Each structure stands twice: as structure tokens, then as C-alpha cells.
Amino acid sequence: MVQLNPFPAELIKALLNEPSSVKADEVVRYEAGYVVCAVITGLYLLVVPAAGLCFCCCRCRRPCGGRVKMEHKTMACERGTLMAFLLLTTLVLLIGVVTAFVTNQRTHEQMGPSAKALPETLLSLRGLVSDVPQELQAVAQQFSLPQEQVLEELDGVHGSIGNTIHTQLQSTVYEVLASVLSLGQALQVSVDHLRALNATSVELQEGQQALAPAVQGHRERLLALLQEPSCQGCAEALDRAHALELGADFNQVPSVDDALHRLKGVPEANFSNMVQEENSTFNALPALATLQTADVIRELKKVVAQQPRELRTLVEAFPGWEAASRWSRALEEMEQCSRPYLKEVQRYEKYRWMVGCLLCSVVLLVVVCNLLGLNLGIWGLCNREDPSHSEAKGKAGARFLMVGVGFSFLFAAPLILLVFVTFLLGGNVQTLVCRSWESGELYEFADTPGSLPSSMNLSQLLGLKKNLSVFLAYQQCKQGAALWTVLQLNDSYDLEKHLDISQYTAKLQQELQKLKVDVKNLDLLSPAARQDLEALQSSGLESIHYPGFLVEIQKPVVNISVEKLVQELEGLAQTQGNTVLGQQLQKEAQGLRKLHQEKLLLQQRLVAKLNLSVHALASSAPLLQPETSDVLDRVTHLKGELPTWATRILKNESECFLTREMGYFSQYVAWVREEPLSTALDNGRVILCDMVADPWNAFWFCLGWCAFFLIPSVIFAIKTSRYFHPIRKRLSASSSEDTQPFHIPRVTSLKL
């Protein structure tokens, strides 16, 4: 609001090059806003102390603004309004003085570090150019950092490669091995059932050959006995005897000799042990990769440990630079000249801080007096109706308010002077330096030819062939451009040539390509196991006519129940009148019972065993053929693809490793190219503007706030104090009717 003029480039140019040519009216015209503020400050200095002096003289001669002499109807409203405004003004003063205390302390705390940081910033700018050879030496030595990082990661790269191959292949390998194990178990079960089926069939045929004559003999004898005329009640038994003959004919079942011949000696392999060994071999892949890549890793470490030839000559090839000494001397002179001024700044800052603390304390004292006066005055007003009340509290409140008024008049002049001085200095720093620095106008001024004297010309100091734009250099450095590009040093020294480590990285890449991992030891299926599965595949197990077995199995060994026939014969033997016939029937019953126990039960158990094997083979044999073919195909495919997959995974892992390691070297090269020019300039702006100017301007603003709010505080305090003094207990009005409590009529003479 005060300084609306643009950056005075011509005025600053004249001040730097020809100070005697600067006209006072130009300075006044630019500082017109501050001149107006100076006039306001002068009026404040004249009016406030003069008003205070007049008020003091008035109070000494007569009670000017002393008390309210007469109570009236609107007095309570006026008093309340004045107290409210006084309280509000006091609170505003309290906020202002608290923030003034804080900003005063903040300014004092920032001034010391800022004064110390300024020489450090100049030292940083000084070393920016003068220490280039030393920095190049340090740069070459710092190449060991990415080297050590790469060497550390090389120690674990072989294990990482093996683990990656194992992790990416384990799901496929484990699945195939599980299928092989499952098929091997199914092969074993099927062969066992086939052998059991064949053996049971043979036993059933042999048992049938032995059983047929015995059953036929019993049938013929029973028919002869039961057909005798003397046999009583034998008709039903005779019918059973007619049915006593063999049911199933196991000579009719299909032959399995061909399948047995093809599966002779199968399984030759132990599938469980084989799968366990293959699992162990696959799980040992990380250790195997470590062994197979050990020699290549050793060679890689030798390559990484070598420093690139270009970096070894980084310092040796740097030419002598006379401009560096001029740059160093100029900044050294600036640094030495700034130190006495900085000490003076710190000394005056201490005085400013002490004066600021004193004036803030005075304002705080005024606030305390106002608050005490209001509290005591209100207390006195509340107890005024009590006849025994002493009006000392109200008088004390009024006196406290007058004390605050006195302090306000006494210290108003130094307060407004401190505000104006700090405002003048801080405002000009903010508008002339900080605002133009942030907007870039300061850089444009420095880049304008003739704006700066020759002793401050950056291009001449650095001995550059072309004029150097400060603003462009700042922007380039801020965007990460190389110092060599900014200062145009490439004509005399090619840094990029010495930072070219492409040959070094190419050799590293070439060595990485030698990494190999051989997974041929992983067979997945042994030769014996493969022969077993191929035998199963060609056995024709699924071609056996299992329904032919089931037809005979479903028939009974004997067409009737021999046990029931035995029980019936034993009953008939006891009921026969012919003793000889009864004994013969009893003998036949005993023979049938013995035949049932010795041969029929055995034959039935063999039939049950045969039934179990037939059903097991009938359900599994149709599935074994496609499953065997699928497993053999998968094993053959995986065996052929494993080396290709392992090579591809190894290549990807090597490329990832190389990319990561190249990133370390790229970071190193990028770090070499970065120099602190933009950082140093930004630090200077932060020191001057953020750390010093901002709290400085906040301090004068808060102090000026307090200075201008002292005026309404004085007015309201004087007005309010009048109502805290004792007043007469009578009302004032415009008519005599209102001033008397009642009217007494005048007595007149009476005529008789």
C-alpha cells in the first residue's frame, strides 16, 4: 500500500556507478509513500504529546474530565458503552503487544544466525569456482561409493539368481513331480490288482474242477433216495436236489495273460524315492547356481574394482584457471568487508531488541492499568447502593485508568519513532530487495549492461569470453544443468569426456552375459520309471473284457443254497419211518455240509476277491491310458523347456541387476554435474528475506498496531474514569416538576 512504485533500476544504477549524480527529488519521488508515513509520524509526535501536556495542565488547575456532577437518565447507557469500547480497545492492545513481544524475540533470535550464515554463503560461492580442482579430486575418490555398493550386491547375486529360477519354476516342477508320483502309485495298484485277478481266476478254475464231480455225485445219490416210494414228504427236497449243480463257469472268463506278459517286472522303479530325489535336486538349485556362477562373479568383481581410466585423468587434465583467483579475491574482500558491518548490525539489533522490550512492556502496563481500572470501577459501581459502602474502589479504578493514560502520553513519542524507523528499513528491504529478488527483477537488473560497476561484473571476474546472464545461470542450475555449461567452461575443459564411463559399463555388461546355470541334472523321470510308464501305456490293460468277469461273478457257485438243503435233509431223516433211508439221508446231509465248508465257502471267498479286483481295474484302467500319455508328454516337454526357461530367467535377472548397478553409476555422474550455485543464491534470499525481513516487518506492524490503538484507549479511559468517581444522588430535568419529589401548594387567605 505504501510503496506502489516499480523497481527503480535507473536510480540504483546511478547510486552504484555515480552516487554524486543522484538527485534528492528522485529519491523523494520514489519514496513518496514513506514520506507520507513520515508526515503521519510527525503529526503523531506533535499532537499526542501536546494533547497529553494540555490534559496534564488541565488536571492540575481544575478537575478536567474529573467526575460526573449530576446523575441523569442516560448515564447508565453512556457508562456501559464507554466501558465496552474501552474493554474492546484494551483487548486489541493486548493481542498487539503479545504478538509484538513474540515477533521482537523472533527477530532477535534470527539476526544472530543470519549474520553468521552470510559469510558462510559467501564462502560457498567462493569455493564454487576456486575449489574446482580439489572438488574434482574428491569426485574421483567418491567413485568408490558406487563401486562398494556394486561389490556388495555381487556377493549375493548368485544366490539371488538361483532363488529366482527356483521360485519361478517351482510351481510347474512340483506339479509334474506330483503327477508322476500319483501315476506311479496308480501303476502299482493296477498291477497288483491284475496279478490278483489272474491268480484268483486260476484258483477258481481249479476249485471248479474239483467241485464239479462232488456236486454231481451228491445230486445223483439224493435223487435216488428222494425218489424212493418209502420217502415221506420228500417232494420239496426232490425239487432242490434237481437244482443241485454248479452255477458259475470260471473257465469262460477272459484271459489276461497278454497284459500280464507286457507288465512283467513292472514297476521296476521306486516312484516315491525317485520323486523325492528329484525334489531334492530341484531344491538344491540355488546352491547349484552359486557353484556354477562363482567363477564369473569373481571376474565381475575384478572388473568393478578397477577405476575407469577417464576418472583417473579427471584432475590431471584440468587446466590452470586464473579467473578462479580473481573470483576468490573478490568474494574474500566482500566477506572481510561484511564482517565489521555484521558486528555493528548485531550490536544495533541488541539495542533495538532492548528498546522494543521496554516499549512493549509499557504498552502491556497500559493494558494492565486499563483492566485493573475497569475491574475496580465496576466493583465500585456494583456496591454504590450500599449506605455503608466506601467509594475507594471506584476512585482507585479511575486512578488506574489515569495512570494508563499517563504512560500512553509519556511513551507515545518513542513508540511511534521506533515504529517508523523499523518500518522504513524493513519496508525498503522488502520492496527493493526481497520482492524484486523473488520476481526476478534483481537478476534482470544485474544482467543489464552497465548496471553494475566493473568490479562487480561476474563475467569479467570469471574471465569468460561471453557475458554471463545471472538469471539464466540461476535458472539453469536450479534445473540441474552442469556448472561447466553454466559458466561456459567446455571450451577449455570437457568434463563430459572424463565422465564417460561407457567402456567401463560395457565391460561389466559383457562379463554379466557369461553367467550360466545348468539344470540338466534335473531328470524329472528316471529311465526305469519311464520304461514302467511306457509298459503301462502299451499293456492293453484297458482292453480287457471286464464285463465277462462280472457275468460269471454275478452267478452263484451252486444254483441252490446248500445250507438250506442240508437242514431240510436232516429234518427228513428224522421223520422217515424207514430207518435205513433216514440214515442214508443223514449221511448225505453230512457230506453236503462238509462240501460246503471245505470247498464252497473257499470258492465264494475267491469270487469276492475276484470281484474286488475286477471292479478296481474296470474303473481305473480306462483313465490310466490318457493319464500316462499326458504325464509322459508333460515330462518330455518340461525336460526340454527347463534349460530355455532357466536361461530366460537368468537373462532377465542379469538385466535387472545390470540396470540397478548402472543406476548407481548414473547417480554418481549426475552428482558430479551438480554444483551449489542456485543453492547459495537461494540461501542468501532465505537469510535476508525469510529469516530477517519477515519477522522484522511483523514486529513494526504489531508495534504500530499498539501505537495507533493507544489513542482510542486514552480517550475511552478518560471518559470512563469520570463515571467511577462519586456523584450526587439527584436527578436533573428541564422542568421544576421533575426536580421535586412532590408539589406543595401555596397557602392563600380565605374570605369569610
Task: Report on this structure.
The protein is mainly α and 752 residues long. Among the domains are: 9-112 and 343-466 and 680-724, no CATH class; 167-292 and 529-648, no CATH class. 76% of the residues lie in helices and 1% in strands. The protein has 27 helices and two strands. The protein has helices at 9-17, 24-30, 32-61, 75-130, 132-141, 144-154, 157-226, 235-242, 257-262, 271-283, 285-292, 294-305, 309-312, 322-382, 392-439, 441-447, 458-462, 470-478, 483-486, 495-498, 502-512, 527-537, 546-554, 562-575, 579-673, 677-721, 736-739; strands at residues 70-71, 728-731. Strands 1-2 form a two-stranded parallel sheet. The longest helix has 95 residues, at 579-673. The protein is elongated, with a radius of gyration of 59 Å. The chain starts with 8 loop residues before the first helix and ends in a 13-residue tail after the last helix. Mean pLDDT is 76; it is low at 729-744 and 746-752. Belongs to the prominin family.
